[in-house]
Structure formats: structure tokens, C-alpha cells
Amino acid sequence: MRFADKERHQLFIEPMGADTDEMYIQGFSSSLPEEVQTQMLHSLTGFANARIMRTAYAIEYDCADPTQLYPTLEFKSVSGLYGAGQFNGTSGYEEAAAQGLIAGINAACKLQQKEPIQLSRSGSYIGTLIDDLVTKGTNEPYRMMTSRSEYRLLLRQDNADLRLTPTGYRVGLVSSERYQQFLNKKKLQEGEIARLENTYLSPEEVNPFLIAIGESELKSGASLADLLRRPAVSYSCLASVDPNRSPLPAASMLTVETEIKYEGYAKRELAEVERHRKLEEKKIPKEIDYTQIRGLRIEAMQKLKQYRPLTLGQASRISGVNPADITVLLIFLGMK
Known about the structure:
Elements: E1 12-15, E2 23-26, H1 34-42, H2 93-111, H3 125-136, H4 160-170, H5 176-198, E3 200-201, H6 203-212, E4 222-223, H7 224-228, H8 250-261, H9 263-281, H10 298-307, H11 312-316, H12 323-332
Antiparallel strand pairs: 1-2, 3-4
Helix pairs in contact: 4-5, 5-8
């Protein structure tokens, strides 16, 4: 049924572990009756006498429409009720865990009468996942892929602590001791980046090093950061012309090198983040009547009425709402 147009379908036979002879057939998923699965398996070349330890199975579950939720994962229509995981139309353990974390934090914040947290698209993949769900909804089980983020150059493994530790500390999930360690690490990295930007070498000092690694020679002085931006130069190999550096932990070395090498690209993304941040700051009143806004296209009016976004930024990401509609909203709300 699924591959009727194909003449062949590739399967992979995977060992289940070091202490078992069981094998898993990747690409042979099925929810058909057991006797049918047995016939299917025995029809494969080399599997006529294979013994099935456990047949394949499928599960079904009901989902809520995630556009019924605020970005905090609280239901718009039921105060204090939060939705997370496959219930919201996602697939995968990480996706479920990420939503459960945010829903749990915000449920606790509500009980303590604290401000809820909303992770941004530009600050985390969790923020991207939740924004996609509550703004656009989903017709297929949603998986979080890096390609879904327009800011993935900023969302790296090495800077996850820089992006999210302050939020964790604010809601009480990061201890004072750990937060102080984070601040020390951040200060160390920022200090090293500043030192590399402000330490200059003459051509005589650095050209032998550049020739040895196949890079073009300098005709005038350059900073250590300028050298590090060259493709063949790494933070580690730069040590041969930078004898005064203080030792850095490996994780900090990676962050320092990445921040400097990709600074130009990151600045472009940060400018885009700033442009969208201004839209995110422009709140839309909950009681707004979209049918009374002249100049708003019918499709946009219907979508805005259905999803009721909280900000102009969220409104701009709704399918069917274009930049002209956002301009109309700006004018209606008296914003610049």
C-alpha cells in the first residue's frame, strides 16, 4: 500500500544487543495481524525459517489541536490546564519531554503566581517546537528537526548554557552554585574573545606559521581573532603564535572559536532576531474583533480569529497571514 509504485524496498537487519541473538528488521514495520506478519517475513529470501520473538505493533492515540494552547502550553479556554507531548500532535521522546518540562514549569509558576516562561524561537529549539505547534498546528506527527529553525546558527550545543541557564535560574531549576559557575564560565569566554580581538601580531611574527599551514602571508598586522577567522586556523594551532594565553576548558575553547569564526553570519541572524523581537513585543488585545478591521483580507481575518495570536510576531507566522495584513494590524492598533 505505501510503496506500491516501487519495485523493491530495502530492509536493514540490526542486532538487538551484545547479549542476545535477536535481530530487528528495520523498514518492516507493520500493524497487520500476527499470522499475516509471519507469512510476510517467511516470504523474504533467507527468512523462510525465521522465528518471530515479538510481532510488530502500532498504537493510536487522540490529540488535542495545539492551536488551542498559549505558548505557555496552557489551554486558552481552561485556566490551569496544560497540554504536553504526543497529546499535542508530536512524535518522539525528546519532543514530549521538552513540552512536559515547559508545561510543568508554567503550571508551577501559575500556582506560585509567578510570571510564566515562553522560550523564543531564536533562543531554543524548544521554543521553535512550541511556537510551530501553537501557531501553525500540525496535520502529521511533529518531529523537531534543525531545519525547522531559521536561527539554527545561533542554536548550538556549545552555547546551550549561555542561552538557557538564566531562564533555569529564574524559575528555580538552577542552583545558585551552578549559576555562579555559569557566570564564571561566561566571563572567562567573553574575556578570551576580547583578548583575541585586541592582541595584534606583525607579519614577521605570524607569517612563518601561516606558510607552514598553507595560508597566505600577511602584508600588515592582524589580530589573533582575524587569524582565527581563516579556514585553516583553529584555536588550538593558534597557540604556536600566542604563547601568553591562559588555559581554557575544551568546551570553552569550542565556543570561543565558533563565536569568532562565525561572527559575521551570526550578526546577520541577530539582526533578523531583533527585527522579529520588535514584533513579539507588540501585544494584540485578547478581546480584539478582527471582523471590524478594514483592509484585512478575509483569509487573514478568519485565521486570526481562529488562532487568536498574542503578539504581532506570532500573527506573522500564521499560514495565510501576509506582511500586508500585519501592516493593517499595526495601523489598527496604532503602533509604529
